[in-house]
Amino acid sequence: MSESEKVPESAVREELEMVSRILDGLTEAIVIAGQKEGSLFFNSAAERLFGIPRNKFRPDDWLTLGGCYLTDETTPYPAERSPILRSLKGETIVGEQVFVKNP
To answer: Residue 31: how many CA atoms within 13 Å on its side-chain side?
Structure first.
């Protein structure tokens, strides 16, 4: 892309803010993690589900902070099976079930 074709940073920021507002208005919990440390989107529904403020949430802490368990609802979810961390390594996650107890 040439210099003249680049989208202004302000336009990108506006689009990101709009997408953030849309996702934040959904009733479904949405957590989006990026490869970069600390790059995470955590909508209002996810904040309510996990019971922790979105600014305190990091991908590698989600199992312990969010009260995540296997489907028996008592066994802590194993860190090596973390859907967020596995997806950050490039794995496609489909049908993974995690029981969440709001701490």
So the answer is: 25
